[in-house]
Design brief:
By secondary structure, the chain is of the alpha/beta class. Helices cover 41% and strands 16% of the residues. The chain has helices at residues 7-10, 58-61, 88-102, 114-124, 145-159, 164-171, 175-183, 191-201, 204-215, 220-225, 247-255, 271-274, 276-286, and strands at 20-25, 28-35, 40-44, 66-70, 108-112, 132-136, 233-238, 259-264. The protein has an eight-stranded mixed beta sheet with strand order 1-2-4-3-5-6-7-8.
């Protein structure tokens, strides 16, 4: 496989392919999936994923929403910006440019993991004014203890390597390694889902963008600003999440006056892939 994913080749069997469009906005060429009619719902995936993560959620919510689901900058089929622009504020600004180009004003935003942090940053910066934000196992606070101290410099070191993305992509040729990574999230993903993640991490360009995002990600300013958030925030916390401790949702709730926690037992970090109907119902409820 070449460094970057190619839509004409790699997108042939992409989930919800009929909903895919490519647009130029904010200096980037974006892959966006759009479907349905009604108030605008913006779906933001997390680090290392793509629109594929919403493959079974999107058709369900498109029955009531006009859905906008982009690949984040550098992920899957969206062009990568310079690495320094893959910070949280840089990504939020890029998405704001995309929404302006599309003429889309979200009434509801759902973000998974890092996608939840982007959604909150956009709301705090006035780039969006939705009726509610839904954080699906959101990564909204810095890691605690030694991991939080070590992660930023290690990520920057990895992101500066020219050969590491190709090495990682080569290693991802071992399907068992991808399956282990996914099991580590606490989620059980069907074989089709595993194959899609395997396809992504075989792309050195995708891996390089993920590392750049990790290297420039700093949640401390967001944690400082969260008490200013006035948009109603629904914190969905899966009991089996091994990536973001469910306890983080309670810590965020203590900071954000508008927040409430919805606990869902028996699911992991990728709960929306495990139980798409349950997550779609939560999104419908968030608009009530």
């Amino acid at each position: 496989m070449t460094a970057a994913l190619d839509w004409s080749r790699d997108g042939r069997g992409w989930p919800n392919r009929d909903a895919s469009v490519f647009v130029e906005a904010g200096g980037l060429r974006w892959h966006v999936q759009r479907a349905g009619r009604g108030p605008v719902l913006l779906l933001l995936h997390g680090t290392g994923a793509s629109t594929h993560t919403w493959r079974d959620v999107l058709p369900r919510v498109a029955t009531r929403f006009s859905v906008v689901a982009p690949d984040l900058p550098g992920h899957a089929f969206t062009e990568a910006p310079p690495p320094a622009q893959q910070s949280l504020p840089g990504t939020a600004a890029a998405l704001a440019a995309l929404l302006e180009h599309l003429g889309a004003a979200p009434a509801l935003v759902a973000g998974h993991s890092a996608g939840a942090a982007i959604a909150c940053r956009m709301a705090l910066d006035g780039a969006i004014a939705p009726r509610a934000l839904v954080s699906l196992n959101g990564a909204l606070l810095p890691l605690e203890g030694l991991p939080g101290f070590l992660f930023p410099p290690v990520a920057r070191l990895l992101g500066a390597s020219a050969w590491l993305p190709r090495l990682f992509a080569w290693r991802a040729g071992d399907r068992a390694a991808v399956e282990r990574l996914l099991r580590g999230t606490g989620s059980t993903i069907d074989p089709a889902g595993v194959e899609l993640y395997e396809w992504l991490v075989r792309s050195p360009a995708h891996v390089a963008a993920v590392l750049a995002m990790m290297a420039h990600w700093d949640l401390r300013p967001l944690a400082r600003d969260l008490p200013r958030l006035r948009t109603p925030l629904v914190l969905v916390a899966a009991g089996g999440d091994r990536t973001i401790p469910p306890s983080q949702a309670e810590r965020v709730r203590a900071r954000v006056r508008s927040a409430r926690v919805v606990a869902i037992p028996g699911l992991g970090h990728l709960a929306h892939e495990e139980a798409p109907g349950q997550i779609a119902d939560l999104l419908f409820d968030a608009m009530l």
